[in-house]
Amino acid sequence: MSEPSIFFSEVNQRQGGFNRRAFLLGGITGLGLTVLGGRLAILQAVEAQRYEKLAASNQFNFRLVPPPRGRVLDRHGVVLASNRPNFRLMVAREKETDVEGLVRNLCELVPIPEDRVPRLISQIKDAAPKAPVPVMEDMTWEEFSRVNVRAPELPGVTAEMAEVRVYPWGGAFAHVVGYVAKVNSDDIDAIREKGGTPGPLFYNPGFRIGKQGIEKAFDEKLRGEAGGKKVEVDARGRVVAEDIGGDIPARPGQEIQLTLDADVQQRALEVFGEDSGGAVVMDVRTGDILCMASAPSFDANRFVRGLTGPEYRALANYERKPLLDKCMLGVYPPGSTFKPITAMACLEHGINPEERVHCGGAWRIGNTTMRCHKTHGSQNLHDAIKNSCDIYFYTMSLRLGPDRIAAAAQALGFGQTFEIGLKGGQSKGIVPSTAWKAEYYKKRNPLNTKWFAGETPSYAIGQGALLVNALQLCVATARLANARKALNPRLIRSIGGVEQPRGSDVPDLPFKKENLEYVRSGMAAVAAAGGTAFRASQLGLGDILMAGKTGTAQVRGYKGIDRKNAGKPWRFRDHGLFIAFAPFDDPRYAISVIVEHGQGGSIAAAPKAREIMRVALLKDPELRARIEKPLPAPDLSQGEEFEDGDTIRDDEASAAPPPSAPVVEE
Questions:
Q1: I need a surface site. Which of 284, 414, 580, 625 has the fewest CB within 10 A?
Q2: What is the CA radius of gyration of the chain?
Q3: Among residues of the chain, what percentage have pLDDT more than 70?
Q4: Cα separations (Å) of 527 from 385, 474, 607?
Q5: What are the Cα distances from residue 549, in Å, to 201, 523, 594?
Q6: CB-based contacts of 224: which residues, under 8 Å, 6+ apart?
Q7: E-strand stretches of 311-407
């Protein structure tokens, strides 16, 4: 019998070695099973939702959906900016896509201009894979259907319905409401310079941001929050189905209501026609702006799609500058519309309004002869406002000096900007003073820093270095009409349903009430018989009368040149201006009108102001009731006979028309 190869000296030695190895292996096995079981428990219980989402993401994707942009409304709820459906065609390139062949196929389905085909091919090739490139906007239903039927044969092509911004009133509100356009590199850089990070929405081809006006100033509030559309995709990421129930709805932007009145604004644009200028209407009780129209205007809808180079150059190079907001950015000498401000300075600094100055048609200061548009004879302050006598104001200005005139002008709103919600969209203009001139010419011309007496007469009649805009003119007129409050203009009525502060929540004017009444009576005489704007400012609305002031602002010197504008090139003609408020006995609305190169306030500006003011008055329920109230019957006895034997019955009696008066050009 053979003996074992391994000999154990003790009986239990072999059994003990086996038990140790068995326990060691069992422990390792148990530990491994415990770790595996624990991991399985974690995967199935703790991280089940995470892996479920990862699995679903291989099958489903979310496509970013731009939110509906908030609407912009007028004071009565009329829509000024909204959204409409838009059928658009998109191409997302894949690695193996034959771009040239794909574009040729698309040209057979939809009308793509031939000159755009090379640029479109380049855009698709330069885009990142699967990044959508817009091919066409505003497809018809037939084009939309045609593409969708052929979609399986066109890899990466999508015809979808989205929303696009629309401005129902075209150009009537273009400068105030503004417009939206595609995001460009400058917009992205501007966000990064401020320390922000552009969100994924900025890279969506259907997303638009505000570029001007209300659209720009309140872009974040109007923008809303993006949503997502849940779609089922294949292994290559191509959409094969939609899961409507899994969509994340977008949140629309906030609604913004303005103080503007669509009818008054539209009428302003109509009366300007081809003329260039601006008109502003304010409620003298609250400061609300009813109209802020700049003419000529442009169709904001064209900017949403994007202008071609020739289209933009045509707008930019047109001499009447349709892209410039002439109510806030355009500045002009106010001419004689500034005389009520000079008159207020006279009264506030003790000049007797009954003191008379003789107007002989010319006035000499030093070696310079300054002229008046007419020989008026003896004039007091009331007559000087009514007849727009330059020589009266020349004379009194030397007693005032520039600083007193500047103080009155600044108290009435000149030389400043107003917080109306539009960022960086106003010009301050210039209100000259001795301090202003010293600072202005300190570096430009140190020898011209002193104010000379000969500069003050031109300043007093709204010429010289004085520059204002249409909004400032209207604010000054509204403050004079209110006769108590230093009104501020208000353009934004509510944001997201939250009412904004009124323009009447301000301090009182720093003027005596009797002085304000005196200046207002002088402005009433301007629109009365014999005034410079009598015929052009008759409203024809019963007993409602308008008080105003005409103005003509020179755009060039007349030394050795014929002063008449007739036959001269448009750019050499004088500006026409008019300010007014109505009704005179209970002021409700103030207006300012500036007509660039309009040849005079009474000829060009006053008739436009009359038509715009009529709409504002007729839309006011209280004033409309007053207008429609029958006039008192004439004081004629029943059956009274006249020399020719005719009789007038009570039902035939009518008020005689107002006597005609010659139009006086300023």
A1: 625
A2: 38
A3: 85
A4: 11, 17, 12
A5: 52, 6, 12
A6: 67, 68, 69, 70, 250, 251, 252, 253, 254
A7: 357-359, 362-365, 368-371, 377-379
